[in-house]
Specification:
By secondary structure, this protein is mainly alpha-helical. It is built from seven helices and no strands. The longest helix is centred in the last third of the chain and has 27 residues. It starts with a helix and ends with a helix.
C-alpha cells in the first residue's frame, strides 16, 4: 500500500526522524533524539537555563506535532507501537525545563526520565491506557514533570 505525503510526514515525526526504528531500546533512542533536539535548541538560543517563551513554545510545538503524528501512526502501526518515540522526545524537553545547561543536569534528566517513563508513576499508567495520540504523549509528559520536579528540588536543596 502506498502511503500519502501526510502519512510519511507523520511517520517521520512520530518516529523522531526514524530513530524509533532502532531495533534495540527504541524508547531510549527516542529519548536520546530528544537530547539532540534540546542541544539544537540550546545552541540556537531558543532554550536557556531560565524560564522563558522559548521553553513554552518548544514544549507546545513538540506536543502538538506529537499528538497529531502519534495518533496517525497508531492507526498505521497499531496501538502501543514501539516505533512511536516522539513522546520520549517531548518527555525529555519537559524533563530539562529551565535547568542549567550543563552535562551533569542533562545526564541526570536523561536517566531519571527513562526511569520514570518505564515505572510510569501515577497517573502515567492511567494516561497511557486511554489510547490515541494524546495518551501516547501524556504518560511521557508526566514522566518529564516528575523528572523536572525532582531535579529542581535537588537544585533548590543544593543552593
Amino acid at each position: 500500500m502506498r502511503r500519502s505525503l501526510s502519512d510519511n510526514l507523520a511517520i517521520a515525526c512520530a518516529t523522531a526522524a526514524y530513530s524509533g526504528y532502532f531495533p534495540l531500546f527504541p524508547g531510549t533512542v527516542g529519548a536520546a533524539a530528544g537530547l539532540v533536539l534540546y542541544i539544537i535548541l540550546v545552541r540556537a538560543g531558543v532554550l536557556t537555563a531560565g524560564q522563558g517563551a522559548g521553553w513554552w513554545i518548544s514544549i507546545l510545538v513538540v506536543f502538538a506535532a506529537g499528538v497529531a503524528s502519534a495518533h496517525r501512526c497508531e492507526k498505521l502501526f497499531g496501538q502501543d507501537n514501539k516505533r512511536i518515540v516522539v513522546d520520549e522526545v517531548w518527555g525529555m524537553i519537559v524533563s530539562l525545563y529551565a535547568l542549567p545547561v550543563a552535562w551533569g543536569w542533562v545526564l541526570a534528566a536523561f536517566l531519571l526520565f527513562r526511569f520514570f517513563d518505564i515505572v510510569k508513576p501515577f497517573p502515567g499508567r492511567r494516561a497511557e491506557k486511554m489510547g490515541g495520540g494524546l495518551a501516547i504523549m501524556l504518560d511521557d509528559g508526566i514522566a518529564g514533570v516528575y523528572t523536572a520536579g525532582l531535579l529542581h528540588l535537588v537544585r533548590f536543596v543544593m543552593g
